[in-house]
TrEMBL record:
This is DUF218 domain-containing protein. InterPro entries: Cell_Envelope_Assoc (IPR051599), DUF218 (IPR003848), Rossmann-like_a/b/a_fold (IPR014729). Coiled coil: none annotated. It comes from Leptospira biflexa serovar Patoc (strain Patoc 1 / ATCC 23582 / Paris). GO terms for cellular component: plasma membrane. Pfam families: DUF218. It comes from the Bacteria.
Amino acid sequence: MKLDKNIPDEHLHFAKQIWDFLSVKDKLEKADLIFVLCSHDFRVAEYAASLYQKNFASHILFSGGLNFFTKHVFPNSEAESFADCAMERGVPKESIFLEPQSTNTGENIQFSQKLLFDLGFQCDSIIAVQKPSMTLRIQLALQKQWPRPNFLITSPNYSLLESPHSKINLFMIINEIVGDLGRVIAYPKLGFQEETFIPEEISAAYQFLISKGYNLHLVPNR
């Protein structure tokens, strides 16, 4: 399915508003673990490897199986693919934990908690790494589902217009962030994450983009 389209400036304006709202980044300190919630974007793995090389933590946990999109992108799980990328950048295999079964953010958290418990790996502080536009969702989900240890949230530094890569175009990225905002709105009611205030202009941008056909990643009706 070819979905590469020219995006009107008006659509980009509203998409950038949502991108900026969804993106959070904490000031980093040394931690016990780097927790990578995997995706289709290898820049996240590369960034996690750079944090390891800068001695921000002694271990990296890559969490992610395959979803409807990445099953067409990676031959193995997201976690294994990201780990291979990190090892190519000098992270030793013995410093890597793998959780290759999860298919969504909730499972990333639940399965990773269990893995660390089973390993007896104690953490007082964790750096959580994701794509920029997923960081608010991660922050809110961790506050609800994994309130301890202390989490710092971070991401590689790139903009909405820089977010496409060889596997995904800008049209699909905008669909993705519209869906992510929909989850920020819907998931607190389902008990998946903490609630956050949605400014009126962000709600308006969300409704506008849905009306223009960016509806491929919306929350399924329950």
